[in-house]
Amino acid sequence: MYFGTQAPSFMPLTSVPTVPFFDWTGYYEHTLTQGNKPAGLALKSAYIDKSRGSALDLGSGMLAASLLFLGAGFRRVTAVDYDEKAAILSSALVEHKRGRFEFYQQFFHQFEFGAQRFDLIHADNSLPYAGEVHFEPVIEASLRSLKAGGLFAATFFGTKHVMLRFRNDVVTVSKDWAEKRFADMKGLHIIEESDDGRHYIEVICSKP
């Protein structure tokens, strides 16, 4: 499903493998009440000419980050999420922000980055759900699609995240992995948070 001005070609949803149902309600409520940390930090960490800029929100959920980017003045915001609730919410925003906002109901590895270039790519607790096969290719495609000086802001699940201990369909990483994976980026800022069985690795960096 696509909401925007021009429908692109991509793999039909009926042809992709089914994934276990996951109720995102709790996470959606959290982003609405607590805000979206990597998105906020990204906007503060470097100057972007938002009137001409474009942002990509991978795993848009309740659109907390997408709305933040639109409010900050980004000329174009693209959101990607497979969840049906995200698709329903996005349909109204597409009409309200005609020409500035577009939504793709897809898995991350289906999104056609192509020749698109972004000033900011944001992914909060979403890329790990791409799975082991698609995790690295999606990250590589994201970094490749950044403009020079563009920002990459993402939160990953750490290896000590208790809730994911028995799940093999979600990728977890270490701070050491993040330091090595994004070593070629500029201004690398990594925050490791661990509390009450939760473990997160937050990454913000820019493309040379």
The largest beta-sheet arranges its strands as: 1-4-3-2-5-6-8-7
Task: Please give the share of residues in helix.
Answer: 25-40%
Strand content: 25-35%
Count, helices: 6
From the N-terminal CA to the C-terminal CA, the straight-line distance is 34 Å
- Number of DSSP strand runs: 8
**SSE order in H/E notation?**
EHHEHEHEEHEHEE
Estimated structural class: alpha/beta
Oligomer: single chain
List keywords for this structure.
8-stranded mixed β-sheet; alpha/beta; disordered N terminus; 6 helices; 8 strands; 208 residues
Describe it for me?
There is one protein chain. With about 210 residues, the protein is of the alpha/beta class. It is globular and about 40 Å long. Residues about 1-35 have low confidence and may be disordered. The protein has helices spanning about 25-35, 35-45, 65-70, 85-95, 130-145, 175-180; strands at about 1-5, 55-60, 75-80, 100-105, 120-125, 145-155, 185-195, 200-205. The protein has an eight-stranded mixed β-sheet with strand order 1-4-3-2-5-6-8-7, with helices on both faces. The protein is built from six helices and eight strands; from the N terminus they run βααβαβαββαβαββ.
